[in-house]
């Protein structure tokens, strides 16, 4: 397989992961976690194992236990994904500046 196909495949896979992330919502805010800016990085290795670096709106977030598990399970449900792991970080801390314009519009902030 050429590098070009691999690049296209990983780009396509990345788009599928983002689509899945956009189906997961913060229960306190009617915006998905991707548009909220909670996803800092998505890494996919050559074995299609995914590592997601994400944050929460606050360390005391009521879904701190369940949201990372939901993210892992939904990403793992993609056929091409072998495994998924979520790492939570608060560095840098989440702020409203990380939200997309779409999220800000949805919340009446624009």
TrEMBL record:
Entry-linked InterPro entries: Fe-S_Maturation_MIP18, FSCA_dom_sf, MIP18-like, SUF_FeS_clus_asmbl-assoc
Superkingdom field: Bacteria
SUPFAM superfamilies, sorted: Fe-S cluster assembly (FSCA) domain-like
Domain MIP18 family-like: 15-88
Gene3D superfamilies to which the protein is assigned, alphabetical: Fe-S cluster assembly (FSCA)
Pfam families xrefs: FeS_assembly_P (PF01883)
PANTHER family according to UniProt: FE-S PROTEIN MATURATION AUXILIARY FACTOR YITW
Name by which UniProt lists this protein: SUF system Fe-S cluster assembly protein
Organism: Maribacter chungangensis
């Amino acid at each position: 397989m050429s590098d070009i196909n691999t690049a296209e495949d990983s780009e396509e896979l990345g788009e599928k992961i983002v689509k899945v992330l956009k189906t997961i919502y913060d229960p306190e805010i009617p915006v998905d976690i991707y548009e909220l800016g909670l996803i800092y990085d998505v890494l996919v290795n050559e074995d299609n194992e995914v590592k997601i670096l994400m944050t929460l709106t606050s360390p005391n977030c009521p879904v701190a236990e369940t949201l990372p598990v939901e993210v892992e399970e939904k990403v793992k449900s993609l056929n091409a994904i072998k495994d998924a792991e979520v790492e939570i970080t608060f560095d840098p801390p989440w702020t409203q500046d990380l939200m997309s314009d779409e999220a800000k519009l949805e919340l009446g902030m624009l």
